Amino acid sequence: MDEVVVKLLNKQPLPSGDLPRTRGKFAGVMHPIIGHKERQFVCMIDSEKPDVMIPINKSVPKILARSSATFEERSITTKTQADEERRRLKIDGAFTIDRENSKDLDDALSIEKLPDSGLYRVGVHIADVSYFVQPETPLDEEALLRCSSYYPGHGFENVPMLTRELSENHCSLLPDRRRLCLSIFLDMSDDGRLVGNAKIQETIVRSNCQLTYAKAQQIINSQDFSFENLPKDTASKIRQLSNLAQKMRKWRLREAAYDHWSSKDELGNYEAQELVEEMMIAANEEIAKFLHSQLEKRAPLRTQLPPKKHRLSSWLEQFGKFIKFCLFPHAVYSNEELQEMTKDVDISGFPKFRVKKSVWFELCSAAESLDKVKLRQLVFNEKHHSQLAIAKSQFERIQQRAQYVCEEDLDDYIVAWEPVLDLEAATVAVDEDDELTIHNLDIWWRMDSSGKQEGNFSLQRKYYKTRQIKFYEGDFVCVRVKEEMYMGRSNLGTSERKKSEMDSDLESEVQVTMTQLEANRSLASNSSYGPRSQSSSIWLGHGIVGEVKFAQDSEIGSVKITLCQSASEFPKELLKGGSLSTLTVIHRPPLHRRMSAVLRKGLKNAPERVKAICLGHELSQGDFELPPFSDLSISRKDSRCQLEPLNDCQNEAVKVALGKPFSLIQGPPGTGKTVTGAHIAYWFAHQNKINFSQSEQKLVESDGSSSQVIYCGPSNKSVDVVAKKLLQIPELKIIRVYSDLREQAEFPLPNKRKPLRSSSDDDETQELDEKLKEVALHHVIRADTCPFAHELKEYERKFKQDKKKGVRTEDAHVDSYRDLIEQAEKWAFQSNGVQIILCTCAVAAKSSIIKSCEENIKQCIVDECGMCLELESLLPIAFLAPQQVVLIGDHKQLQPIIHDKKAQNLGLNVSMFERLSGKAKMLRLQYRMHEEICKFPSEHFYNNQLETDASVKNQGTHLQSFWPVENVPMAFCHVMGEEEVTPIKTALSNEQSKANDKEVRKAVHVANCLVNNYRVSSSKIVILSPYREQQERIRKELAKTPQCKDILVTTIAKSQGSEWDYVILSLVRSLSGDEHCPEGSSHWVREHLGFLEDDHLMNVGLTRARKGLCIIGNKNLLSYNSMWKNLIESFEKRHCVVNETDWPKK
């Protein structure tokens, strides 16, 4: 630790052993712990913490880069010793037990017999650091940075979390020194049971001796302990504590308590170590109870759940026969649980119990000499028995990771999500360039009660209607005011202007321009904004739109904005009256507006069951009756249904979904989760149509119009796939609802301003599938069966005529047309017999759906939920409040796409499905991949639970002569190409997108070989890459060959949900041999592997192929990532790794 100079304001000497009670201030650093020329390390800068350096030498811990500036002078004030003496309880006769040469003695123990009750009062005393380290002081910040003390061992000096003066003196419970402590008093019976509640008190403790574990063990063993001048009764107290500790340990661990040695380094001192261990565990438990009682929702409690059922089942299959010989399972499970676990275990072929020769000889020797201690150590130490040691090691591998958890309420949930969502919304809004700028706008500023600046401005109805200006709560704004607009205000006369005059001038003064400013131009520095004279300066502030009042019956609309930050201090002159400003508005994307609304309003008004889903609480089981069939396959009930029948696992998943208020179904690649989801939707609709009479137990037919199912997904593609499946079910009434953007592409609104930049979202711009037109809402309301269709068509005919004549359609006609659409949609939802509504999660939060269907929706299914933002999944759940919710997805495939790195690091990329995945029912039988292709994903992503259906196995291996190894339709082609980077963003690729021409040629070569040599249809081949630039170059190269020009080339991300016979995967990233980093730090690997670091993306790429998979990449670079290294090793074991020049064979 650095030595600092402290100027004492009170120079009176301190009595020995007393607590410091002087005042002083830091003067500066005198002797740094490491001189500038003493030790130097080659370091890299931590990408996430620029002030932290990471030494290349891995034996050296991370180093904080301190500023060279001298320390600021800070005063230090402490309470007087007398204050603490008066209010704290005094404890004498405690003792410490620590390792040899320990100096920071932070805990002590004491025990006394209570005369009245016969109980023992055990005191666990912890040094009270909080007295010396006040919150948010430099000392506190330094301790937070270090987190804990570092004990390197091997004779090296420790690095304490606090200064040595504190950790080894004032906060160290040294013998015969009085020290401030926080003490936990436990009253115990003679059998080691805690009686009553623990007492927690602030104390002053004086330790009367300092013991090592070895010395304490000698006392416990009643051996000679004349080495220490022990105070009276200390030896008997230590033995009594040890006796209680062993009884407490037996209650806690049951039979596992007999093994004292397998988890300890110093075998001879185990009882002394367990004495301290048990008392600390008991004290920690009582502190946890206290914190939970005081901070029920926020107390961080450490928990470790038992192994997952499927992992435990696998372990039992292999090691269940050893359980009755093992001690360790008794620490986790009761005897009854162990009996239940092992009742089906076959032990008929159990071999003889094995004992190592060396252990056997020691056992014989100990038995002959009647050394009972040695016998217990040899028998009960499971490390001595290879079969039990392996079983224990494998059990530890399947245990779940311990973690800290807090119980949160809905307010905590909302507060946690709001700022993270705002980060992402701002980034996406800036990327989309949906901006407008208003010049010469009068903004009136005031200070609210919390000290924040609020702005207010007004616009005339005619002005904002004709220019189609809209503001939404949560939009981002940038305000710019020239200095001459608020300095020398009297010359401008702004403060004297009346409100009516400003309103009348508004139309002539305000000029609106739509801009396509880049993201950083709108939100970064004031030097980027518009024309400005050399002599003027500009104040610039950023804020968020608050309340928006644009009422239909009002001629004036008003908008409030809240200032969040500014480039310079807010000019006080702006508070004196309105000032002409330039306002740039960046619209929050529609999806993010709706997610923000669900946080602000939707969740607060939602039923308790919706709040319970958010908080991960168990829902009380509702009264949901299942259909009276054991097999719920629709095709077996109605031969007209074209859906595949359900397998046993799918059938069980459907039953779980139908019978619970909330359920999750995990569908790995090829397991038929779409078919499963379609069945769930059908049976929900069936339940809604047939009411089970509680009194007569008879089926009563109803019209089904009042109860509906909503089926959602993150994208149009995901929802369309399910819609096509549902169309294969006879007499099922569905309706497909698209976004306004998709609808207006077919039926455009007159007078609507077109965006300057066309949408690049393929999901919204692609043409509507012909099969879905008949059920698409915007086509249904224009069909002959709709009572509003004729009038809608009349409006649209008139709009076309106006366009031909070049006449602007009257706004009143447009408003009437939109009102008519709203009425027609309400008819379609409520009076058309619709049973299932299909839409994206974002569309589910449209006002038209909420108004028409809020009371009707009884069940909600969210498909591909692993790709949805958590709040995106909540849109249909919170706004429509269904009675049953089913989440379907696979958190091992693609996560939600996050644009803001900070938001991603804060967990926005973790979907609700992933967060709650421990409750999911997994589909295990896959129908897509060849068994060899399935092996790696099953082992590394799905815990070896994926099974290949017999129908796939019976197909055999196709094109056997094409692959490096017969019957293994896979190849990893090692290509050492040169990686290129695109410098700018284009319509076809992103900025910094990557390409590799050598891999381009190889991918096209493999495709040519499949098409020309093996006569594979181009429609059955796909070429995937994580980078759009690579995708475009491959597409251009394929166009040169007529037979291959129709091969689909797309990104891995867009391939989820699709499958092909043959997949060629180009990974792009590459380095030459001399560019490789031998150690490969995590930062270096992230920089050079990019997207390939994402295991979810890897899983998707590997699981698209049905009959054959070819991966093209640089194995040397990929091996820096553990998962890719495992894949390459797996391919090498099967002799499927080839060099680019050796394969495919000519």
UniProtKB/TrEMBL annotation:
One of its GO terms (cellular component) is chromosome. The keyword Hydrolase applies. Pfam families: AAA_11 (PF13086), AAA_12 (PF13087), RNB (PF00773). Keywords: ATP-binding, Helicase, Hydrolase, Nucleotide-binding. Residues 749-768 are annotated as: Disordered. InterPro entries: Coronavir_polyprotein_1ab (IPR050534), DNA2/NAM7-like_C (IPR041679), DNA2/NAM7_AAA_11 (IPR041677), NA-bd_OB-fold (IPR012340), P-loop_NTPase (IPR027417), RNase_II/R (IPR001900), SF1_C_Upf1 (IPR047187). The keyword Hydrolase applies. It comes from the Eukaryota. One of its GO terms (molecular function) is hydrolase activity. Residues 87-344 form the RNB domain. Belongs to the DNA2/NAM7 helicase family. PANTHER family: DNA2/NAM7 HELICASE FAMILY MEMBER, HELICASE WITH ZINC FINGER 2. This is Helicase with zinc finger domain 2. The gene is HELZ2.
